[in-house]
Predict the structure.
Amino acid sequence: MAWQIALTVILAFTAGWMVNDAGLFDAPVQLEQAQENVPIFAQPDDIPSPSAAIDAEDIRVLGDRVEIRVPNVIPAVFTDTNSMDPVIDAGTTALELTITSPNQVQVGDIVSYETSLAPGIFVIHRVVEKGADEDGVYFILKGDNNPTTDPEKVRPEQLRRKVIGLLY
């Protein structure tokens, strides 16, 4: 009797497989196409990224902590002005290094500087241009969420720190 049940089960599975393979119960396939005016797979323009400051071998993940072996790192938190949204927002902690030379700063880096428009006030924005004029090296900065660049040429002596990492 057991062999008859086993044979019946095998025959039922075989018949089901054959019917399925014949396509009698296939659901219709709906072809979905992207609208031609929405290029979701378009190749985006390259936007300058912050320059690398931490090598992978300087990071150690331990059981209860992460160690980053970079000397003179300063943790920083920021006023929530929304100018750097969504990269820097309330609650973001940055790891920063003191800038000692304008050669440390490249287009794409996020830096803090003391604005000449309000002495004692520090701004943290992204470098969008680096150049030189009759007064020497300058940087043009912009908040990622701001519509325009900052209203001054920032000189090396105004630069304070460069962001090398962000923790959310």
